[in-house]
Amino acid sequence: MNGTDLFNDLSEHVTLRITSCNTVLHPAGWMESKSHLNYDLWLIEEGAVQLSVGEYMHTALPGDLVLFYPHLAYTAANGETPCRFIYMHFDFGLGEQKRILDSFPLCGVVPARLVQEETERLRHLFRTHQHASGMSGMRLKGYLLLLMARIMEAYGAGEYKGELAVDGARQVHAGRLLLLRATIDYVRNNLHRPIRIEELADVAGMSEKYFIRYFKQALGVTPGQFIYQLRMNRAREMIYSGRYSIQQISALLGYPDPYSFSKAFKKHYKVPPSKFV
Predict the structure, then answer these.
(1) Residue 212, domain CATH
(2) pLDDT at 1 (0 to 100)
(3) Where in the sequence is the domain holding 218, given as residue range(s)?
């Protein structure tokens, strides 16, 4: 488990907000040293950008992406040739955890070959958005989310790992998620029966009260919300498959009877399971 599957499990709790975006052209000899308050994404269109983070040097070429995490100090320069790139400042959260990406080594230069299709679409949408055409704002947000999903997918498949330096605070954040992996796997493997929060705390080696607080700080949702969401995801898949009756689904997902399951399902999806398809 690499952890990024959490975004798929909890996709309904993912939030993304673009705070600003534009394109910039820097003449030869440009250099800047700074950090950003939000997540920041650059799509290199022309020239090469040299990045220095701590003791590490990286080069971003046309078609590459550069993903910065908030407050990451860097120096960027273009040497003897101009460079042009699209930038987007954005927020990305999971539930109440607004810095969830910090838990994963995604911050770095993403090679063009991994994201070519997504970046071409994003570039086109950005040009459309500059002219305030149609629903370009919503479409741009959607394509940025699609691009982030592709980066996570590449990381999960072992095709990419961000190499920009990670500070101590982010290492702590990543460590929190690492400590919950056994608990998360336990939930996934036991959806067929009732799961008590006390059980999960025991798996994590924590007191129940501390575990609840720790879990929410790490994932942005409570343990109960996590269990409920996974059950609803699984229920939706079973209904779509057409292979299970409501009674079978309720039993396979740990509900005492079909009525309890149907009530929970309707609360989440706003329709009863019998009318969901």
Answers:
(1) 1.10.10.60
(2) 46
(3) 180-275
